[in-house]
Design a protein that fits this description.
Structural class: alpha/beta
Order of helices and strands: EHEEEHEHEHEEHEEHEHEEEEEEH
Strand content: 25-35%
CATH class of the largest domain: Alpha Beta
Number of strands: 17
Number of helices: 8
CATH architecture of the largest domain: 3-Layer(aba) Sandwich
Largest sheet: 7 strands, mixed
CATH superfamily of the largest domain: Formyl transferase, N-terminal domain
Length: 318
């Protein structure tokens, strides 16, 4: 069988893992890559190519990086001249119109970081952890105009361990996504598998995370707060208020799931491993924190060098 000609659309590191899988697979030929334009990055805000563009350029692939495909028919014409049979989309970051989706003989497929129809949308990895889901995965779907609503070609499942954070889960799911492309994409191309429609009654949406969600509310349960901390590690992070300033919370663990020995936000103990704080239900142990204008540190060290003591209560607002 001749190699399948692929147009790849993607932008971040998650997509890089999938692009590498296609480049290393003798069954596929990546004829060109579409990604987001260079963006300012770092303290000096230097224009920096996306991770996908960096890899594609290093491999000598054709690359285009328009602000919008929808508003750039000349770029779309260039892409179509590459002669791809299928488009593979992984965290591209732009909405594709129906005309583009219909431009490839085998259509467009998308690797999505959830078990569709659960967690359609922008932040499926973070929202799955935040919600306390026991498992998640990746799905390969046939793209349609409606957001993440295409029929599913294949999936991979993985348990969400109680302590894993969103960055760690991201890396595991990226590897599973690459495996989907190596196996299910080829089965789909050969006609060995048929996409299965999603159950619309089971749809949930993973809305984009807003910075306003970062402040931890001590009246919530320890489990809820722990899940939010590890979900938001990827960004924008979480914080509590201490002495009228923000104290970033990088790592926690649940000390007690049930009951409450103090009022929400009250320090119950400074242990050998962290600072235990009462919640609306149960208690949360802070393990790693970061005061304003200081480096990340253990909560034990912070407890020693600040005004924290048993009975102290964190601020409720600025």
């Amino acid at each position: 069988m001749s190699r399948v000609r692929v147009c790849f659309l993607g932008t971040p590191d998650f997509a890089v893992t999938c692009l590498k899988a296609l480049l290393d697979d003798e069954h596929f030929e990546v004829v060109g890559v579409v990604t987001q334009p260079d963006r300012p990055a770092g303290r000096k805000l230097q224009l920096t190519p996306s991770p996908v563009k960096a890899l594609a350029t290093a491999k000598g692939l054709r690359v285009v990086a328009p602000e919008s495909l929808k508003d750039n028919p000349l770029i779309v014409d260039e892409i179509l001249r590459w002669g791809a049979e299928v488009a593979v989309v992984v965290a591209f970051g732009q909405i594709l119109d129906q005309k583009f989706l219909d431009s490839f003989n085998l259509g467009c497929v998308n690797v999505h970081a959830s078990l569709l129809p659960r967690w359609r949308g922008a932040a499926p990895i973070q929202r799955a952890i935040e919600a306390g889901d026991a498992e998640t995965g990746v799905a390969l779907q046939k793209m349609v105009r409606k957001l993440d609503a295409g029929a599913v070609i294949g999936e991979r499942r993985i348990e969400i361990s109680p302590e894993i954070n969103s960055l760690e889960l991201h890396d595991q799911l990226a590897l599973l996504g690459a495996d989907l492309l190596r196996v299910e994409l080829m089965d789909y191309v050969r006609g060995n598998v048929g996409p299965q429609p999603q159950d619309e009654s089971q749809v949930t949406y993973a809305k984009k995370i807003d910075k306003s969600e970062s402040l931890l509310d001590w009246s919530q349960s320890a489990e809820t707060l722990h899940n939010k901390v590890r979900a938001f590690v990827w960004g924008p992070g979480t914080y509590v208020l201490h002495g009228g300033k923000r104290l970033k919370i990088h790592k926690t663990k649940i000390a007690e799931r049930r009951g409450s020995l103090g009022s929400p936000g009250q320090v119950l103990a400074i242990s050998a491993t962290g600072v235990v704080v009462a919640c609306g239900e149960g208690s949360l142990e802070l393990l790693e924190v970061q005061p304003e204008s200081r480096n990340r540190m253990s909560a034990v060290e912070f407890g020693r060098t600040s005004s924290l003591e048993q009975g102290y209560k964190f601020d409720e607002r600025l």
